[in-house]
Amino acid sequence: MKRLVKNLSKLTDRVDEAIISDEEKLNEDIQAIKEVLYKHKEYVCLAGPQIGIKSRIFCIKFSNGDIRTFVNPMITHSKGMHLSRESNPCIPDKEFIIPRSDEIQATYQTPVGKIESNLFQGVVSELFQQMVNVLDGN
Predict the structure, then answer these.
(1) Sequence-distant contacts of 92-97: CB under 8 A, at least 24 apart
(2) Residues with Cβ < 8 Å from 49, sequence gap 6 or more?
(3) Whether 58 contacts 70, CB under 8 Å
(4) Going residue by residue through the chain (138 aa), what tens digit of pLDDT does each one get?
(5) pTM of the entire structure?
């Protein structure tokens, strides 16, 4: 099982797009992210770079227990602004106050390469924005 990256210098670069056509590698990376989420019940989202995967993939655990995977995500529109208190499991015992959009329109690929676009609001919007920031090295 992969471990959380504790060397923050490894989280400062934008990671490359995931290659959908390399199904074996993509599925291996997704499974590694999900294993960490299953093991650590307190985590609600996790991006590839947080466990050493240099690919634009992240997973969000929804309140019903469903874990959704987002591949090569991008935020295409945002609306509103508020401050969000957030933490990062790679930086334990520290919280950050980050400006976040109230709602976002996001486009991404599913693990099978289907392109989807959805409107996210509330906590899911905040989590999505946080994970895109991790993928971008912010």
Answers:
(1) none
(2) 5, 10, 11, 15, 134, 135, 137
(3) yes
(4) 888 998 888 899 999 999 999 999 999 999 999 999 999 999 999 999 999 999 999 999 998 889 999 999 999 999 999 999 999 999 988 999 999 999 999 999 999 999 999 999 999 999 999 999 999 999
(5) 0.94
